[in-house]
C-alpha cells in the first residue's frame, strides 16, 4: 500500500486551524479561570492528544477508512450501547452520553459523527446502482440512520441526532439522489422530528416558546441563559472588554467554557472577535468543499464524500452553536468545534480536519500515486 | 471537468452554498445588531451596564491631628471584624475555623448553635471585633477563605429509571412517576459565610487629657466636638468613587474608572505640646478633685502666642465609644464667659503707669480708708493699712486701692486699652464654640462700671484664653501677639499690638513677682524658679442677674515664669471649688484664688519647669 503523498499539508488551512485552537484554548482559560486552571490544563492535553491522532491520520491513506468504515461504525454503535451499562456510563445534566475513562469522559456520539460519514460514504459508493433506483436506496439509508439515531435519542442527545440527520441528508444529496426522493426523505425525517417533539409536551413548549414570546418580556428561567449571552455580547461592543475581562462567565452565564464560548468571545473580543471567528470557520468550510470538489474531479468519490460530509457536519455544528449564542434559537448542549472545551468533540474535530488535509494532499499527489487513492 | 459535469456537482451543491451563505450573512447581521437591541427597560447596552457596572466608594482616610513635635494626638487605625453566617457555613471547615478564631471546637459549636437558634441577626454575626489587620487571626482566616475543600451534602434528586423503563417512557407506552431519592453529593467548595470586614477606628493616644480640645467622632465618622468637629471637612477628605465592572459574587472586577478622585484628609498640626498638655491636665484634674470644684481649665501659652496646652476637666476618654456626655467634651477655655476679677488689676496698674498717672514706687501711697462710690474699704475696722503702695495693692489684691488708681483714668482710655488687649474680640481659634467676650462701649459705662472694671467686674467679660493672652504683654515688652493653635495653617502675618511701654511692663512684672513671693499668690511660689502672677476670686454670677449668695466662686490664677524673659504663661480657672484650706493645715476655709487656683498653677508649672531637660522648641525662635 502506498501511503506517502510526497506533498506538504496546506499551510493556510493549518494556520487557520491552529489559530482557532489557540484562540479556543485562551477563551477556555478565560471562561473557566474562576474555577481554577483544571479546564485549561485538560483542554491543552486534549489538543495534544488530538494533534497526535491527527498526525497518525495524516500518515495513513484515506483508503484505510474506506476499508474499515463498517468496522468503525459498528464499534461506535457498541460504544453508544455501552453508555447505558451501569458502572461504565456517566450521567450529567440529566443525560447519559459518556463512558467513564480515567482522564475524561468519552462521548461516543462525537465519534459517531465521523464514523457515520465514513460508513455512509462507503455505503453510497457501494450502493450507487440502488441510489439510481431511488426508493430502495432511500429505505436503506433511513435504516442506517435510524439505528444510531434511536440510540442517540435514548441518550437524550438531541443535538447529535440533528447533526446525524444533516450529515445523512447532505451526503445523499451530494451523491446525486433525485430531488423527488430527497423531498420524501425530508418529509420522513421532519415528521419524525416533529413527532419526537410533540410526544414530550415539555420539550415542545420549550421548543416553540422561544420564538412565541418576546425574549425580553419572557421571564422564564429557560431563556435566561440566552439573555445573559446577549447581554454579554452587548457589553463587548466593537472591540470587546479584552481577554479575561468578561464578567458574564462568572455567575450569570452557565457553561461559558463549553456551549456558550461564542458569547464569551463576543464579550471579550467584541464584534471583531466574533466576525473573525466566523471568517476563520468560513475559510475552513470553503476550503473543505473545494477539496471535496477536486477529489470528485479526480474521480476519488470516497474522499470527496468524506470531505463533503465533514464540511456539512462542521457547518451545521458551527451554525447551530453560533445561532444559539446570538439568540436566534434556544440553547441546547452543543459545542463549537475546535474552540469549546471538551475532550471527545475536540479530538474528533481535529481528526476530521486531519482527514481533510490528507485528502487535499492526496489530491495534489502525482498521477502515478493517484490511482492508489480512493 | 467531464466528471464534474456528469456528476452535476454545481446543480446539487448550489443549494448548500446558498444556505450557508445566507446563514453567514444572518450571523454577521445579528452579531452586530445585538448591540442595538431595545428591551422594555431601555437598550441592551444599558441593561448590560446596569448589570455589570458598580459604583464603589473608596473611603478617604481621615487626617491625623499632631502636636507641635509631630506626636500623634488623633489618628485613624485600620481594624477588622469577622462576620459569620452560620446558616451557610460548611461543617468541614468548622474545626479549622474555630482554631483560627481562637475558640475550642466545642465552644465554637455551642456559639453557633445558640446563634442558629436565634430568629433575627443570625446571618450577620460579628464573632470578633476590633482586630489588628496584621494579626495572626486575620492571616489564618484569609488563608482559610482561599482554601478549597471537599464538601459533602445530602441532595434530593430524581430517581434514575432503568434502561427498559426509560425506553418505555420515551415512546410513551408507560409513565413512571417522578421519584425523589436522597444522595450524598460531594463537591470541592470554598469556605462560605465568613467575611473579614475592614473599617477604620479613630484612636486618641493621649486619652482624656486632650478630649475637650480635640473632641471625638460619632459612629458615622463625623466630628461632634472640638477640632474634630470644627475641621471635619478638612480632616475627613473626600471619598473617591470608582466605577468597576463586576459580577455580583465573583469577587473579581475589571476596568476600574475613577468617577471622583479620592482625597485623603489633611493632617492638622497643633501648637499644643502633648507633654505639657498632660501635665496641665493632671494638675487641673487633681485640683478639681481636691477642691471639689465643678470644673477646671488651664491654658498655657508661649510668649509668642502659641498655645502649648488647653486642659479642661472633667473630660472623658474619647477612645471609649460607649458613652458621649457633651459636657465632658466642652473646651471651657473658649466657651465659658467669665468675669476675670482681680486678675485684671495688673492691667489697671499698667495703664495708669503707662499714662504717667502713677509712679508705682514705694513712695506713692493710696488712701484705702475712704469709700469710693459703692466700693468700701477692706480693712475698715482694723485700720491695718491707712494707705497702700501699688505693690501692696497687688499683693493684698485690694479693690479700693485699685479703684483709687482707676479714678485717675478716663473711661475712653480704659476702653481703648482693654480693646487693644483683645477683650471683646473673637480669637478665631475654634470659631464655632468660642465666646468672643463682652466689652461695652465707653458711653454705656457708669461711674460704678468704671470702678468695678478696675478689678475685673462690670462692663467686660472674657474667656480664659483672652485673659491669658493679655498677660503676654509681660513677655513681649508691652506688645501682645495673636494666639496660635495651628501650626500648618491659619497663619497671619500680623504685627504684635503695642499696648504698653517696655519699662511699664517690667515694673509691674516685678510687683507681680512680689505677689507670688510675699502676697496672695504665695502658694504659687516654687523653689528654683521665679514666678510672677495674680490671683483672682469672683462670686459666681447667676443667670438671673446678681451674684450667688451661697459663696459659689470662680477662682483664678494667671501668671508666668521666669519673670524676666518668661517662657510659659499660664492661666487657671476653677469653677465653684467648695473645699479649700487655710495655710497648710486642713481647716476648711472660703475658697479664693490664692488657696485653690494658685496651688494648681504651682503643681502644673513645677512639673513643666522641672521636667528633666525638657526643651521647648518654639517655632520662629
Do you know the CATH topology of the largest domain in chain B? Beta-lactamase
Strand content of chain B: 15-25%
User: Helix tally of chain B?
Assistant: 20
- Series of H and E elements of chain A: HHHHEEEHHHHHHHHHHH
Which percent band covers the strand fraction of chain A? under 5%
Average pLDDT level of chain A? 82
What are the low-pLDDT stretches of chain B, counting only 5+ consecutive residues below 50? 1-6, 616-621
Q: Main beta sheet of chain A, described?
A: 3 strands, antiparallel
Kindly provide the radius of gyration of chain B, computed on alpha-carbon positions and rounded to a whole number of angstroms. 40 Å
Flag low-confidence runs of chain A. Answer: none
Radius of gyration of chain A: 21 Å
- Give the distance, in angstroms, between the N- and C-terminal Cα atoms of chain B: 108 Å
Can you tell me the overall shape of chain A?
A: globular
Strand order of the largest sheet of chain A: 1-2-3
How helix-rich are the residues of chain A, as a percent range?
Answer: 55-70%
Task: Specify the structural class of chain B.
Answer: alpha+beta
Helical stretch tally of chain A: 15
Describe the structure.
The complex is a heterodimer of chains A (374) and B (621). In chain A, 70% of the residues lie in helices and 3% in strands. Chain A is mainly alpha-helical and 374 residues long. Chain A has one domain (11-370). Chain B is an alpha+beta fold and 621 residues long. Chain B folds into three domains: 50-71 and 205-269, Alpha-Beta Complex (Penicillin-binding protein 2a (Domain 2)), CATH 3.90.1310; 78-196, no CATH class; 332-567, DD-peptidase/beta-lactamase superfamily (Beta-lactamase, 3-Layer(aba) Sandwich). Chain B has 20 helices and 25 strands. In chain B, helix 11 runs antiparallel to helix 20 (597-609) and helix 14 (390-396) packs across helix 19. The radius of gyration of chain B is 40 Å and the shape is elongated. Chain B starts with a helix and ends in a 12-residue tail after the last helix. In chain B, 40% of the residues are buried. Mean pLDDT of chain B is 83; it is low at 1-6 and 616-621. At the A-B interface, helix 8, helix 11, helix 12 and helix 13 of A face helix 1, helix 2, helix 3, helix 7 and strand 11 of B.
Amino acid at each position: 500500500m502506498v501511503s506517502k503523498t510526497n506533498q506538504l499539508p496546506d499551510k493556510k488551512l493549518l494556520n487557520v486551524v491552529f489559530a482557532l485552537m489557540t484562540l479556543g484554548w485562551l477563551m477556555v482559560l478565560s471562561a473557566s479561570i474562576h474555577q481554577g486552571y483544571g479546564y485549561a490544563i485538560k483542554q491543552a492535553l486534549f489538543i495534544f492528544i488530538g494533534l497526535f491522532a491527527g498526525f497518525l491520520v495524516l500518515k495513513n491513506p484515506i483508503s484505510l477508512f474506506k476499508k474499515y468504515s463498517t468496522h468503525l461504525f459498528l464499534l461506535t454503535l457498541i460504544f453508544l450501547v455501552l453508555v447505558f451499562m451501569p458502572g461504565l456510563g456517566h450521567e450529567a445534566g440529566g443525560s447519559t452520553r459518556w463512558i467513564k475513562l480515567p482522564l475524561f469522559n468519552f462521548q461516543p456520539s462525537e465519534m459517531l459523527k465521523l464514523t457515520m460519514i465514513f460508513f455512509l460514504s462507503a455505503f453510497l459508493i457501494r450502493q450507487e446502482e440502488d441510489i439510481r433506483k431511488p426508493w430502495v436506496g432511500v429505505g436503506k439509508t433511513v435504516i442506517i440512520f435510524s439505528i444510531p439515531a434511536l440510540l442517540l435519542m435514548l441518550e437524550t442527545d438531541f443535538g447529535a441526532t440533528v447533526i446525524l440527520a444533516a450529515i445523512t441528508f447532505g451526503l445523499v444529496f451530494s451523491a446525486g439522489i433525485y430531488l423527488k426522493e430527497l423531498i420524501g426523505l425530508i418529509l420522513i425525517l421532519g415528521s419524525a422530528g416533529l413527532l419526537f417533539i410533540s410526544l414530550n409536551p415539555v420539550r415542545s413548549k420549550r421548543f416553540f416558546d422561544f420564538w412565541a414570546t418576546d425574549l425580553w418580556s419572557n421571564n422564564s428561567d429557560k431563556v435566561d441563559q440566552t439573555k445573559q449571552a446577549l447581554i454579554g455580547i452587548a457589553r463587548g461592543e466593537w472591540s470587546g472588554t479584552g481577554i479575561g475581562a468578561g464578567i458574564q462567565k462568572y455567575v450569570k452565564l452557565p457553561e461559558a467554557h463549553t456551549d456558550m464560548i461564542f458569547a464569551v468571545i463576543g464579550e471579550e473580543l467584541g464584534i471583531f472577535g466574533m466576525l473573525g471567528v466566523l471568517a476563520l470557520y468560513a475559510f475552513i468550510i470553503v476550503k473543505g468543499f473545494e477539496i471535496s470538489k477536486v477529489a470528485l474531479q479526480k474521480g476519488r468519490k470516497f474522499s470527496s464524500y468524506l470531505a463533503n460530509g465533514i464540511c456539512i457536519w462542521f457547518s451545521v455544528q458551527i451554525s447551530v452553536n453560533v445561532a444559539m449564542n446570538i439568540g436566534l434559537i434556544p440553547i441546547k448542549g452543543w459545542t463549537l468545534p475546535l474552540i469549546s472545551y471538551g475532550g471527545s468533540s475536540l479530538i474528533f474535530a481535529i481528526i476530521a480536519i486531519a482527514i481533510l488535509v490528507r485528502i487535499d494532499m492526496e489530491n495534489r499527489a502525482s498521477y502515478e500515486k493517484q490511482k492508489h487513492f480512493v | 471537468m467531464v466528471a464534474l459535469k456528469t456528476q452535476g456537482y454545481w446543480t446539487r451543491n448550489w443549494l448548500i452554498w446558498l444556505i450557508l451563505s445566507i446563514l453567514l450573512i444572518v450571523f454577521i447581521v445579528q452579531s452586530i445588531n445585538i448591540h442595538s437591541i431595545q428591551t422594555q427597560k431601555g437598550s441592551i447596552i444599558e441593561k448590560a451596564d446596569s448589570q455589570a457596572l458598580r459604583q464603589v466608594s473608596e473611603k478617604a482616610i481621615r487626617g491625623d491631628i499632631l502636636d507641635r513635635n509631630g506626636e500623634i494626638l488623633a489618628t485613624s487605625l485600620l481594624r477588622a471584624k469577622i462576620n459569620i453566617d452560620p446558616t451557610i457555613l460548611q461543617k468541614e471547615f468548622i474545626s479549622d475555623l474555630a482554631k483560627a478564631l481562637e475558640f475550642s471546637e466545642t465552644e465554637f459549636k455551642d456559639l453557633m448553635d445558640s446563634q442558629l437558634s436565634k430568629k433575627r441577626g443570625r446571618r450577620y454575626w460579628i464573632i470578633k471585633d476590633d482586630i489588628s489587620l496584621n494579626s495572626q487571626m486575620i492571616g489564618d482566616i484569609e488563608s482559610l477563605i482561599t482554601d478549597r475543600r471537599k464538601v459533602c451534602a445530602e441532595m434530593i434528586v430524581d430517581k434514575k429509571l432503568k434502561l427498559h423503563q426509560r425506553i418505555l417512557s420515551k415512546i410513551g407506552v408507560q409513565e413512571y412517576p417522578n421519584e425523589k431519592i436522597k444522595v450524598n453529593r460531594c463537591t470541592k467548595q470554598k469556605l462560605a459565610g465568613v467575611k473579614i470586614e475592614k473599617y477604620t477606628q479613630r484612636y486618641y493616644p493621649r486619652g482624656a487629657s486632650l478630649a475637650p480640645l480635640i473632641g471625638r467622632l460619632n459612629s458615622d465618622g463625623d466630628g461632634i466636638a472640638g477640632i474634630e468637629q470644627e475641621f471635619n471637612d478638612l480632616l475627613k477628605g473626600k471619598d473617591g468613587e470608582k466605577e468597576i465592572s463586576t459580577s455580583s459574587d465573583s469577587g473579581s472586577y475589571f476596568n476600574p474608572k475613577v468617577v471622583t478622585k479620592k482625597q485623603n484628609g489633611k493632617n492638622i498640626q497643633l501648637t499644643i505640646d502633648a507633654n505639657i498638655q498632660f501635665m496641665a491636665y493632671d494638675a487641673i484634674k487633681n485640683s478639681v478633685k481636691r477642691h471639689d470644684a465643678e470644673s477646671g481649665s488651664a491654658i498655657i501659652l508661649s510668649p509668642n502666642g502659641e498655645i502649648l496646652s488647653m486642659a479642661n476637666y472633667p473630660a472623658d476618654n474619647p477612645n471609649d465609644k460607649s458613652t458621649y456626655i457633651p459636657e465632658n467634651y466642652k473646651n471651657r477655655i473658649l466657651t465659658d464667659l467669665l468675669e476675670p476679677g482681680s486678675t485684671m488689676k495688673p492691667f489697671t496698674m499698667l495703664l495708669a503707669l503707662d499714662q504717667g498717672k502713677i509712679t508705682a514706687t514705694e513712695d506713692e501711697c493710696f488712701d484705702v480708708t475712704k469709700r469710693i462710690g459703692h466700693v468700701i474699704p477692706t480693712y475698715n475696722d482694723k485700720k491695718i493699712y491707712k494707705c497702700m503702695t501699688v505693690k501692696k495693692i497687688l499683693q493684698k489684691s485690694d479693690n479700693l486701692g485699685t479703684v483709687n488708681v482707676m479714678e485717675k483714668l478716663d473711661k475712653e482710655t480704659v476702653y481703648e486699652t482693654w480693646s487693644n488687649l483683645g477683650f471683646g474680640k473673637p480669637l478665631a481659634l475654634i470659631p464655632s464654640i468660642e465666646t468672643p467676650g463682652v466689652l461695652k462701649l465707653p458711653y454705656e459705662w457708669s461711674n460704678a462700671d468704671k470702678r468695678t472694671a478696675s478689678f475685673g467686674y462690670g462692663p467686660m467679660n472674657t474667656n480664659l484664653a483672652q485673659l491669658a493672652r493679655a498677660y503676654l504683654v509681660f513677655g513681649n515688652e508691652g506688645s501682645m501677639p495673636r494666639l496660635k493653635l495651628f501650626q500648618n495653617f491659619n497663619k497671619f502675618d500680623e504685627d504684635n499690638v503695642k499696648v504698653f511701654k517696655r519699662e511699664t511692663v517690667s515694673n509691674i512684672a516685678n510687683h507681680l513677682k512680689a505677689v507670688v513671693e510675699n502676697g496672695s499668690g504665695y502658694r504659687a511660689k516654687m523653689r528654683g524658679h521665679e514666678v510672677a502672677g495674680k490671683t483672682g476670686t469672683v462670686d459666681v454670677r447667676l443667670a438671673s442677674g446678681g451674684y450667688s449668695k451661697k459663696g459659689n466662686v470662680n477662682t483664678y490664677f494667671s501668671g508666668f515664669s521666669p519673670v524676666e524673659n518668661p517662657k510659659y504663661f499660664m492661666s487657671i480657672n476653677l469653677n465653684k471649688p467648695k473645699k479649700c484650706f487655710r495655710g497648710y493645715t486642713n481647716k476648711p476655709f472660703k475658697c479664693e484664688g490664692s488657696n485653690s487656683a494658685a496651688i494648681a498653677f504651682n503643681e502644673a508649672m513645677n512639673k513643666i519647669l522641672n521636667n528633666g531637660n525638657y526643651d521647648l522648641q518654639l517655632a520662629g525662635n
